Amino acid sequence: MVTFAHCDTLTRWRIRLFQSGASFWEGALFWEGALAVITQCGYSARMIDDTVHPPKFSITDVLFVVFLRILAFIGLWLGIEFWAMLVGYSHNGLARFDLLTVPWRIATCSLAVIFPVAGIGLWMTVSWGPVIWSMGALGQILMYGVWPHIFGENPLLIAFHIIVAVVYLAFRLAILLEKRGRA
Fold it and tell me: Are 22 and 30 in contact (CB under 8 A)?
């Protein structure tokens, strides 16, 4: 019968084996004997599963990513619209930067940068993408909802941003509940 004293002996044998510069075959014979000692000492000789298992995505995760990618295209489109307006390509050149009033200059320049950056963040599904998108959405909601006498009215765009925010929050809540159910 092997006792724990043999397990300590095993450690001494292993140290001696590597200090002596043993050949491959001596090492193989050592490990064959060591396996018997380890098993008799009560240790498990099974291999540990070290393969990489890809994560399993639920349908909610996949639909959320598709939703974010669609928003990314919309963000890039909005950014292109604002840039086209600034350089005079749209509105028959009447909305060029040098022809705009100061509030329109500030809003258009800000949104021309915010929406493409948000689109990139949403496409990469990083945490700052929705934050930047919400900044641009809040800017447009303020433009057309709070200051319609300066920027005009656009209730369709306000409704669009509110619907997007509600759908985003619904996805986040569904993912949270799904993860909580798995745990």
Answer: yes
DSSP 133-156: HHHHHHHHHIIIII-HHHH---HH
Residue 154 φ/ψ, nearest 5 degrees: -150, 75
* Domain of residue 27, residue span: 1-53
H or E element: which one contains 17?
helix 4-20
Instruction: Name the strand (E) or helix (H) holding 39.
Output: helix 24-40
pTM score: 0.69
Residue-wise pLDDT for 95-154, tens only, equals 899 999 999 999 999 999 999 999 999 999 999 999 999 999 999 999 999 999 999 999
Q: How many domains does the chain have?
A: 2
Do 110 and 75 fall within a single domain?
yes
